[in-house]
Amino acid sequence: MAPSHTSTLPSPAREEGGHIYRVVATLCFALFFLLLPALAARAEMNIQEVKSKKGITAWLVEDHSIPLIAIRFVFDGGSAQDPAGKEGLVNLMTGLFDEGAGGLDSDAFQQKLDDAGAEMSFQAARDGTYGSMRMLSDQKDEAFGLLKLAVNSPRFDQAPIDRIRAQVLSGILANERDPNTVAQQRWLRAIYGEHPYSRSDQGTKGSLTSITADDIRAFHKANFARGGLHVAVVGDIDAATLGKKLDDVFGDLPERQTLAPVSDVTPKLGQQLAVNYDLPQTSLQLAWP
Question: Residue 42: its pLDDT value, please?
Answer without folding.
Answer: 54
